[in-house]
Amino acid sequence: MIFGVTWVAVVGLVVAVGNLVWNIAQGIRNRSRIAVGLDRRTFTVPSRPRVHRTYFTVTVQNLGNSPYAVWDVGLEVSERIGDISLRTGQSVLRNHSRSNPANIPDDQWKAINGPELPCIIPVGGVMDWFFDDDATKWVPSGTATYRGYASRFNRKGKHQRTLSKLTFPRLTGG
Questions:
Q1: pTM of the predicted structure, to 2 decimals
Q2: What are the tens digits of pLDDT across the range 133-142?
Q3: If 0-12 CB within 10 Å is exposed, 13-18 middle and 19+ buried, where does residue 131 land?
């Protein structure tokens, strides 16, 4: 007994502090985190060499050790004209006179394809969303670049957005 403290109490305190440090380290290691990727493919219509079709793919990968709920996926436009969001912009992005010449019913035709939102990405899972040319051609050409994003609501009810590192213009060379 030193200063009225028994060794059992000292060992108990050391074990409790060690347990606290271990739990904090596990919480940091197991936190939810994702990686967002962006890919672009541009095609020229052979019969019309001045007509370009651009397709974007936003890929979301769960890097954490717990499932990740994605609330929205989209393309962020650099000139702040407005984001192209799967959740809020699907009906606005349709231009039936140009985009839907085959008169496909609205419930079957989409400018953005991928899993329904909100969706849960399992641990180690990867999901892709495809943005058709019709989803991006309404943005004025020029210096606008696109960046992919995925968002969710955090525990405090705030919108948390994760951006892709890569940015692309809609067309190469203007």
A1: 0.70
A2: 777 776 666 6
A3: buried
